[in-house]
C-alpha cells in the first residue's frame, strides 16, 4: 500500500540560501545557477556535526523537495554536481533523518526529470539504495523511506531505455536491486515518501 505524503514546509528564516521559486530557478542564467548550486552543495557538504547544522541540512532538503517537483528544475538538478553530493550524503550522513530526506529528494528528482544526462551517476545511487535497504532490512521505517527513491530511479532508467532506439549498457542495474525490491513487495511493505 502506498501512503500519501504530507506536504513539506521549510523555514525561510533558517535557510542559508536565497529561496528562489521553481520558476525563477528554471529561468536562471548559467552563472547565477552555478552560484546557487555551489551554495547548496557547500551547505550539504558541510562536515559540522552540531544539531543546528543537521537542522539546517534538513531545512535545505525540505526546500529542495519543494522545487524538485518542477520538471525543468528537476532536470537541471539531477544533471548537476548536486546529484553526486546527494549520493554522498545518502552514504555518509550520520543522521538517518538526513538520509531519509536525501532519498526523498533523489526520488523526486527521478520522478520529475524530463531527461537524464549520460553522466548522471544513477547506477551508483541505485547500488547505494539497494545496499542500505539490504543492510537495514528489518527497519521498516527506513525501508519505507528508501524504497520509493529506488523505485523511481528504476522507472527512470526503464523509461529512458525505452526512448532510445539502441539501449546502451551505461545504465547498469544490479540484480540485487530487483531482488531487494521483490523481497520487499513480497513482504507487503507499506510504502510512503519520508
Structure in a nutshell:
This protein has 194 residues and is mainly alpha-helical. It is built from 9 helices and 2 strands, in the order βαααααααααβ.
What do these coordinates show?
There is one protein chain. Helix 2 runs parallel beside helix 5, helix 3 (51-67) runs parallel beside helix 6 (96-112) and helix 5 (82-92) runs antiparallel to helix 6 (96-112). Helix content is 64%, strand content 2%. It is an all-alpha fold. It is globular.
Strand order of the largest sheet: 1-2
Tell me the overall shape.
globular
Order of helices and strands: EHHHHHHHHHE
Distance between the termini: 15 Å
State the helix count. 9
Could you give a short account of the major beta sheet? Answer: 2 strands, parallel
List keywords for this structure.
two-stranded parallel sheet, 194 residues, globular, mainly alpha, 9 helices
Amino acid at each position: 500500500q502506498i501512503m500519501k505524503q504530507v506536504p513539506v514546509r521549510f523555514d525561510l528564516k533558517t535557510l542559508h540560501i536565497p529561496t528562489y521559486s521553481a520558476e525563477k530557478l528554471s529561468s536562471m542564467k548559467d552563472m547565477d545557477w552555478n552560484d546557487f548550486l555551489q551554495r547548496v552543495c557547500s551547505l550539504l557538504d558541510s562536515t559540522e556535526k552540531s544539531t543546528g547544522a543537521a537542522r539546517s541540512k534538513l531545512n535545505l532538503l525540505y526546500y529542495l523537495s519543494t522545487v524538485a517537483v518542477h520538471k525543468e528544475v528537476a532536470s537541471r538538478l539531477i544533471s548537476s554536481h548536486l546529484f553526486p553530493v546527494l549520493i554522498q550524503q545518502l552514504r555518509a550522513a550520520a543522521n538517518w533523518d538526513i538520509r531519509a530526506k536525501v532519498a526523498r529528494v533523489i526520488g523526486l528528482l527521478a520522478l520529475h526529470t524530463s531527461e537524464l544526462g549520460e553522466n548522471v551517476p544513477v547506477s551508483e545511487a541505485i547500488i547505494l539504495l539497494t545496499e542500505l535497504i539490504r543492510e537495514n532490512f528489518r527497519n521498516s521505517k527506513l525501508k519505507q523511506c528508501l524504497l520509493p527513491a529506488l523505485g523511481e530511479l528504476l522507472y527512470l532508467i526503464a523509461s529512458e531505455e525505452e526512448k532510445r532506439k539502441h539501449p546502451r549498457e551505461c545504465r547498469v542495474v544490479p540484480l540485487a536491486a530487483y531482488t531487494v525490491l521483490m523481497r520487499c513487495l513480497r513482504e507487503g511493505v507499506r510504502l510512503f515518501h519520508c
